[in-house]
Design a protein that fits this description.
single chain; mainly alpha; 0% strand
């Protein structure tokens, strides 16, 4: 479904996160999301498909989030907020 290596690196980085998420971990996930978005975009994937792929990798990495996530505010160092930020990063990186 998606390029395996980049997905595995991102998934494993997410699996290794501390709870609460440390700033250095947050930054490392952001950089890996950027790399993954760049790779998928170069393959011609549209932004909607990239967001779904990133969310799938995050789920495989252990992030569980409510479908009502858009209506909830999370503390900045939680995996829930990380998921929200990962979607935002996808959009920002794709359209930069």
């Amino acid at each position: 479904m998606y390029p395996e290596h980049a997905a595995i690196v991102l998934r494993d980085r997410i699996r290794a996160l501390h709870r609460p998420v440390r700033r250095d971990e947050y930054d490392a996930v952001r950089e890996q999301v950027f790399s993954y978005v760049d790779e998928l975009k170069s393959l011609g994937w549209p932004p909607e498909r990239i967001i779904l792929a990133v969310k799938q990798v995050a789920t495989e990495g252990g992030i569980r989030i409510s479908p009502r996530v858009a209506s909830v505010s999370f503390p900045s160092n939680t995996t829930e907020q990380l998921m929200v930020d990962m979607v935002k990063w996808c959009i920002e990186r794709y359209f930069r």
